[in-house]
Amino acid sequence: MKALALAIVVLVGGLLISATVDFPDWGDPASPAALHVSPRYIEKSLEETSVPNVVTSVLADYRGFDTMFETTVVFTAGVACFLLLRRREPRPEPTRVYRHQATGVIVEMSQPPESEPAPEVFQRIDDDWTPHDLIVMNVCRLLIPFIQLFGLYVIAHGHHSPGGGFQGGVILGASVILIALSWDLRTAEMRLHEVTTGLMSAIGVFIYAGVGALALALGGNFLDYAALAPLLRVDPIAARSLGIFFVEVGVGLAVMATMVFIYKNLASEGRLDQGL
Amino acid sequence: MSEQFPALVVIGPLLAALMVSVAGWLRPRLCLPLALLGLGIAAAASTGLLAQVLAHGPISYRLGGWPPPWGIVYHLDNLNAVVAALVSWVALVNLVAAHRAVLTDYPDKIGPFYTLYVLAVTGMLGMVVTGDAFNLYVLLEITSLTGYALIGLGGGRAPLASLNYLFLGTIGASFYLLGVGYLYIVTGSLNMADLARLLAPLHGSLALTAAFAITLVGLWMKMAFFPLHAWLPNAYGFAPSPAASLLAPLMTKVMVYVMIRVMISVFTVEFILREVLLSQFVVWLAVAAMVGGALMALGQRDLKRMLAYIVVAEVGYMVGGAWLGNRLAMTGAILHIINDAVMTFCVFLAAGCIFQKRRGTAFEDLQGLFKKMPWTMAALAAGALAVIGVPPTCGFFSKWYLIRGGLEAGHWGFVAGLIFSSLVNVVLFFRVFEIAFFEPLDHGHGHGETGGAVALTEAPLSMLLPLMAAALGLLALGLATGPLVERVILPIIPAGLG
User: Fold this and answer.
1) Distance between CA A215 and CA A235 in Å, rounded?
2) Chain A 175-204, residues with CB within 8 Å of chain B CB atoms
3) CA separation, residue B229 to residues B165, B217, B219, B348, B362 (Å)
4) Which residues of A are less than 8 Å from B143 in CB distance?
5) C-alpha distances out from residue A63 to A34, B140, B192, B332, Å
6) Which helix (H) or strand (E) holds A153?
7) Which residues of chain A are within 8 Å of residue B108 when distances are taken between CB atoms?
8) Where do the Na+/H+ antiporter MnhB subunit-related protein domain residues begin and end (chain A) (predicted)?
9) Which of chain A's residues have a Cβ under 8 Å away from the Cβ of B142?
10) CB contacts < 8 A (A, B)
11) Chain B residues with CB inside 8 Å of A201's CB?
12) Measured between CA atoms, how close is B93 to chain A, in angstroms?
C-alpha cells in the first residue's frame, strides 16, 4: 500500500513538474500574470482608492469580496471548534493532575491512585499549587500592553505599510494567548470572557459584511465603498480608503477573537477550566 | 431592489448566519427565526433571479463596483440561476424539518448549529452564482468547513468519518486551487469568461492539460466520484439527520454543477471534445461508479448508509452524462442535478423522520413502520420510485435523456450500467419495504424495548410537512420536465456539443 502511494505521488509530482515547462519564467516581466491585471492595480490603485499599499487595496477593495469570505472562514473555524469541542459538564471528580518532571508531560488521573507516585518522577499539581514563574509572569505582564498597542498599529497602518486586519488581529490574539500561557487559562478567561470572544468574532465579520450592505443600501453595489461618500461627508475616493479601514477593523476583531476562542477550546478540551 | 438580487442571494444568509451566532449567545430562541429569515431571503432572491434570467437573459453583477477582470463578478445564466433556486429552497424546507431534531439532540448548541447550517448554504449558493474561479474556491472552503463540523457532530464513528472526509476534502480543494493557480500563471486572470477567452490560443499546451486534470480530480474528490468516493458513505451515514438531509442532496450536486461550469465556461467544449480519450475514460469511470455504488449499496444493513451508496451511484449518472459529449446527455446530466437533489432530499428526510422516532436507521429499526409511520413511509416510497426511475416521477425523465444520450453516443456500456443500477435500486428499496411492511414491530427488535411499540407514532408535523413537500416536488418536477428542458436547460448547452 505504501509503495503504491509512493508510486502515485512520484507519478503525479512528475506530471505536475513536467507541466511547468510551459510556464513563463519566475519574475518574468513579460509573463501573462505581470501583463494582464496587475498593471492596472499598480498604476491606478492610488488614484482610485487613495491607498498607497497595493496589496491592501487589492485585498480589501478590488477583491474585497474574497477577503470578506476569508474572514468568514476564520469565523467558521471558531464556531466549528466550539460546536465539536465545548462541553459544559465539569470534569469527573475527583481528578488528580501530575506533571512528569523529566518531560513536562501532564497526566490526569480520574481515579486517585492508591499511593502517590514518587514525587521526584511525578509532581502533583492542582489549582492551589500552580508553579508560577515570577520572571515569566511579570515580563509578560509588562510586554502585553505594548504587544497589543503594536497590534492596533498594524491594523490601522495597513494602508501604508505591510499589515492590515489579519496580521494585526493575529498579534492581538497572540497577546491574549500569552496571558493564558504565562498566567493560566482562567486569568485569560477573566480578561476576555468566552461570550465576549464569541460575540466579537461574529461582530467582526458583521462589520465587514455590514459595511458592504450599507453601501448596497445607499445605492451602490455590495462592498462599493464609494457609495458611502454621502454618509461620511467625503469624496468617493476617500470613502474607498475609509471603507477599507472599516473592514480591516472588522477583520482584526474577528481574527483576534477567533484565535483566542479556538485556543481556549482546544487547550482545555472544551471545558475552559485549566488548560495547558 | 431587484438589480441587487445576485448580492442578496449570498449576503442575506451570510448576515443572517452572523446574527444567528450572536443570538446563540444572548437569545437562543431567536436562532431559528433568524436562520429562516436568512434562507427565506436567499430563496426569494434566487427565485426572482431565475425569473429575471429566463425573461431577459444572463445577468452580470459587479461586486464592489469593479469591472471584470479586476474585480469579482457574479455571472448568472439559466444554469446557475436554476441550481441556486434549487439549493436555497431545499435548504429552507430542510431547515423547517431540522428544528425538532436539533432541539432533541443538541439543545445547548442551537446557536452554533444554525450558524454553520446557514453558512453551509451561503457557501453553496456563493459557489453556484459566482463567475470567478478563485471566489469559487473561497466559498468551497466555507461549505467544506461547515460540512466537516456538522458531520462530526453525529454519534458513533461520526468524528472519525468527518476526519477522513476532512483529509480527502482538503486534498480535493487543494487540487482545485492548484489548478486555478496554474491557470493564473498561464493567463493572469481569475475571471471565468476572461479565462475562456485567454485559454483559447493555449489549447494543446501541457500546462493547460495539467491544470484541467488536477482541477477535475479535485472536484471529483469533493463530489465523491468513483473511485474517490470512500469518504462519503461513512460521512453521510453517521452525520446527524438534519445535516445529512442538507449535505447529501446538495453538496455532491453543487460540485457536479461546478464541474459542468468549469467544463463549459472555462475550458470550453472545444477543448474537452479534443480530449476524446479522456472523455471515454471518464465515462467508463462513471459506469464503474453506477455499478459499484449499486453493488456496495446491496451490502448495507442500514438505511442511511444504503442511501449514501446510492448517492455514489447517482454521481456516476451525472458525470457520465456530462462527458458523453452530446446535447441529449448533457441535458440529462443537468436535469438530473435538479431531480437528484430533490429525490435525495426526500429519501434522506424520510430517514431523518424515522431516526427521530426510532433513534436508529438500521434495517431492524424499520420493522412495522408502514403501520406506525404511514405518511413517512409513503414519502419514502415516492422517493424510492423516483430514484428507481418510475414515471411520472422526475427520476424517469432525466434517466430517459441520459439513456438517449448514451445511445446517440453509441456508448453501450453507459446505457447498460444505468439500467443495471436502476434495477439494483428496485431490489434495494423493495427489500426495505418488505421489512417495513411485513415484519411486525415488536418482533426481534434488538433494543430490548418491546414497550416502545406503543409509543411509536408518526413523525412530528414540522418534519412531516417538509417531507410531503419534497415528495410532491418529485411529481411536480416530473410533470414540469417539458418546459424545464425547453426553456431552462436547452438554451445554455453550448453550440459546440453535437
Assistant:
1) 14
2) 195, 198-199, 201-203
3) 10, 12, 12, 18, 22
4) none
5) 17, 17, 15, 36
6) helix A134-156
7) 88
8) 135-260
9) 69, 72-73, 76
10) 173
11) 21
12) 23
In degrees, rounded to 5, the angle at the alpha carbon of residue B197 between the alpha carbons of residues B193 and B199 is 110
- CB-based contact B64 A38, cutoff 8 Å: no
Q: How many CB atoms lie within 10 A of CB A269?
A: 15
CA distance to A179, A244, B464, per residue, from B362 (Å): 49, 54, 21
In angstroms, the separation between the Cα of residue A196 and the nearest Cα of chain B is 9
Q: Tell me the average pLDDT across A147-168.
A: 91
Among A19, A212, A223, the residue with its CB nearest the CB of B210 is: A19
Contact status of A17 with chain B (Cβ, < 8 Å): no
Chain A positions in Cβ-Cβ contact with residue B165 (cut-off 8 Å): none
Q: Cβ contacts (< 8 Å) between A75 and chain B: which residues?
A: 18, 21
- Disruptive mutation site among B21, B139, B205 for chain A (greatest number of A CBs within 10 Å): B21
- pLDDT single digits (tens) B263-316: 888 988 888 877 667 788 889 999 999 999 999 999 999 999 999 999 999 999
SS3 per-residue string spanning chain B = CHHHHHHHHHHHHHHHHHHHHHHHHHCHHHHHHHHHHHHHHHHHHHHHHHHHHHHHCCEEEEECCCCCCCCEEEEECHHHHHHHHHHHHHHHHHHHHHHHHHHHHCHHHHHHHHHHHHHHHHHHHHHHHECEHHHHHHHHHHHHHHHHHHHHCCCCCHHHHHHHHHHHHHHHHHHHHHHHHHHHHHHCCCEHHHHHHHHHHHCCCHHHHHHHHHHHHHHHHHHCCCCCCCCHHHHHHHCCHHHHHHHHHHHHHHHHHHHHHHHHHHHHHHHHHHCHHHHHHHHHHHHHHHHHHHHHHHCCCEHHHHHHHHHHHHHHHHHHHHHCCCHHHHHHHHHHHHHHHHHHHHHHHHHHHHHHHHCCCEHHHHCCHHHHCHHHHHHHHHHHHHHHCCCCCHHHHHHHHHHHHHHHCCCHHHHHHHHHHHHHHHHHHHHHHHHHHHCCCCCCCCCCCCCHHHHCCCCCHHHHHHHHHHHHHHHHHHHCHHHHHHHHHHHHCCCCCC
Query: Does A42 touch chain B if contact means CB atoms closer than 8 Å?
Result: no
- Note the pLDDT of residue B206: 83
pLDDT for B172 beyond 60: yes
Q: Which residues of B55-75 are buried (b: 16+ CB within 10 A; e: fewer)?
A: eeeebebbbbbbebbbbbbbb
Is 80 exceeded by the pLDDT of residue B443? no
pLDDT over threshold 80, residue B438:
yes
Which H or E element spans position A89?
none
Distance from CA of A22 to the nearest CA of B (A): 6
Spatial separation of the C-alpha atoms in residues B450 and B467, rounded to whole Å: 28
| Residue A128 clears pLDDT 60, i.e. is over it | no
The pLDDT of residue B452 is 47
Whether B70 and A15 lie within 8 Å, measured CB to CB = no
Average pLDDT over residues B239-259: 92
| Cβ–Cβ below 8 Å for B185 and A23 | yes
Q: Residue B384's pLDDT band (boundaries 50, 70, 90)? A: very high
Does A69 contact B126 at a Cβ distance shorter than 8 Å? yes
CA distance A206 to chain B (A): 6
Tens digits of residue pLDDT in A83-97:
998 888 776 666 777
Contacts of A84 in chain B (CB under 8 A): 149, 152-153, 159
Whether B257 and B264 have beta carbons less than 8 Å apart is answered as no
Q: Residue holding cell 477583520?
A: A251
- Partners of A216 on chain B (C-beta within 8 Å) are 4, 7, 11
Strand partners, A98: A107, A124
